[in-house]
From TrEMBL:
Protein name: Obg-like ATPase 1
One Pfam family this sequence matches: YchF-GTPase_C
Family: Belongs to the TRAFAC class OBG-HflX-like GTPase superfamily. OBG GTPase family. YchF/OLA1 subfamily.
PANTHER family registered for this protein in UniProt: OBG GTPASE FAMILY, OBG-LIKE ATPASE 1
Length: 355
C-alpha cells in the first residue's frame, strides 16, 4: 500500500511574509556616504564602479546580478553533466549614501529613499574602519550612531507615508462606510504609534490580515535588513594575516547567500542532461505558481509536480533509485515548493502537450 500522507507532511499554515510577492526580488546597499558601500559592491560584482572619497558620487543606483554559490547545484551538474548550467542569482543595487534629514529631502534624500522603496531588502553597511583620508559625514567613526541615523530617517519617511495614508482614508471614510477603510485606518494608526515609538515595522507582531494590507504600502522599515560592518583590512590583517584571503573568499559568498535568504528567496531545481537550472521563487510559493516561473503555460495547464528531494537523490544516487525507494512524489496544486526540490512539471494546455 502506498504510504499515506501523514499529518506531519501537511504544510503548516504559515503567516504571510512582509514584502512583495514576486520571484524578481532585489537587495539594496544602504548606508551613510563613505562607509564603503561602493567598495563592497565592487568586490561583490567585480565591476569597476569608481569608489570615490566624495559623498553623493553615486546618484543613479547601480545594479548587478551575482551568482549564489550552492554545493547542491554543483553536485547536480556533476551528476547530469548538462549542456547548460544556470545557477541562482542575487540582484544587488548600490544606492547612494543617505544623510541625516534625507526624509525631508536633504542630500537628494527623496530620490535615494525612492530607490530604497524599490528594493525588497537592505544590506546596511556600517563603517567601523578608521582612516583620516576618508572623511566621515559626522566627523567621527561610530557605527552605532550611524545605524541610528539611518534607522531614524527610514522611520520618519514611513511616518510621513502612513500619515498621508491616514488623511486619505479619513477623506474616503466620509464618503463611504466600507469596512475595509476602517480596518486600514486602524492599522495605520497602530503602525504610526509603533514607528513613533522608535520601532521598525518589521519588528511588529502583525496579524495575517495586517500583513496583507502592509504589503500594499512597501514601507521602508518593513524590509529585511542584513548589517555589514566594514572594518579596516589592516586591523583584520594584523590579527589573522595568513588567513585573510581565505576568510575574504568565504565571507563574500556567505553575504550573498544571507542576502538571498533574507529577502525570502529560495529555489527549486530542474535537472536533466540538457540543463541543470535553479528557479528562484519566493518562500511560500505553491507548485502552479512555481511552474509559472518556467512558462506561463506550465501554470495555466498545471497537472502536477513530480518532486524529488535533493537529499534523497544525493543519498540514493540516481532518479531511478529514488523512484524505486518510493520517494519520488506527485504533488498537486496546493503543494508549497520547498528549497532544493527537484521538480518535473506535468502540464496540459489546449493545443499544447506535456513537458
Ligand atoms: N581604510 C579603509 N578605507 C576604505 C574601506 N572601505 C572603503 N574605504 C574607502 O573609503 C572611501 C569611500 O568608500 P565608498 O565605497 O566609495 O563609500 P560609499 O560612499 O559608501 O559608497 C573610498 O576611498 C574607499 O577606498 C576600509 O575598509 N578601510
Ligand atoms: Mg557609493
Amino acid at each position: 500500500m502506498p504510504p499515506k500522507a501523514s499529518k506531519k507532511d501537511a504544510a503548516p499554515a504559515e503567516r504571510p511574509i512582509l514584502g512583495r510577492f514576486s520571484s524578481h526580488l532585489k537587495i539594496g546597499i544602504v548606508g551613510l556616504p563613505n562607509v564603503g558601500k561602493s567598495t563592497f559592491f565592487n568586490i561583490v560584482t567585480k565591476l569597476s564602479i569608481p569608489a570615490e572619497n566624495f559623498p553623493f558620487c553615486t546618484i543613479d543606483p547601480n545594479e548587478a546580478r551575482v551568482y549564489v554559490p550552492d554545493e547542491r547545484f554543483d553536485w547536480l551538474c556533476q551528476l547530469y553533466k548538462p549542456k547548460s548550467e544556470v545557477s541562482a542569482y542575487l540582484e544587488i543595487n548600490d544606492i547612494a549614501g543617505l544623510v541625516r534629514g534625507a526624509h525631508a529631502g536633504e542630500g537628494l534624500g527623496n530620490a535615494f529613499l525612492s530607490h530604497i522603496r524599490a528594493v525588497d531588502g537592505i544590506f546596511h553597511v556600517l563603517r567601523a574602519f578608521e582612516d583620516k583620508e576618508v572623511t566621515h559625514i559626522d566627523d567621527t567613526v561610530d557605527p552605532v550612531r550611524d545605524l541610528e541615523t539611518i534607522g531614524e530617517e527610514l522611520r520618519l519617511k514611513d511616518i510621513e507615508f502612513v500619515q498621508n495614508k491616514i488623511e486619505d482614508l479619513e477623506k474616503s471614510m466620509k464618503r463611504s462606510n466600507d469596512k475595509q477603510l476602517k480596518l486600514e485606518h486602524e492599522l495605520c494608526e497602530k503602525v504610526k504609534a509603533h514607528l513613533e515609538d522608535g520601532k521598525d515595522v518589521r519588528f511588529g507582531d502583525w496579524k495575517s490580515a495586517d500583513i496583507e494590507i502592509l504589503n500594499t504600502f512597501q514601507l521602508l522599515t518593513a524590509k529585511p535588513v542584513v548589517y555589514l560592518v566594514n572594518m579596516s583590512e589592516k586591523d583584520y590583517q594584523r590579527k589573522k594575516n595568513k588567513f585573510l584571503p581565505k576568510i575574504h573568499a568565504c565571507v563574500i559568498p556567505k553575504i550573498i547567500k544571507t542576502g538571498f535568504a533574507a529577502i525570502h528567496l529560495i529555489y527549486f531545481f530542474t535537472a536533466g542532461p540538457d540543463e541543470v537550472k535553479c528557479w528562484q521563487i519566493r518562500r511560500q510559493t505553491k507548485a502552479p505558481q512555481a511552474a509559472g516561473t518556467i512558462h506561463t503555460d506550465f501554470e495555466r495547464g498545471f497537472i502536477c509536480a513530480e518532486v524529488m528531494k535533493f537529499d534523497d537523490l544525493k543519498e540514493l544516487g540516481s532518479e531511478s533509485a529514488v523512484k524505486a525507494a518510493g520517494k519520488y512524489r506527485q504533488e498537486g496544486k496546493t503543494y508549497v515548493v520547498q528549497d532544493g526540490d527537484i521538480i518535473f512539471f506535468k502540464f496540459n494546455v489546449s493545443g499544447g502537450g506535456k513537458k
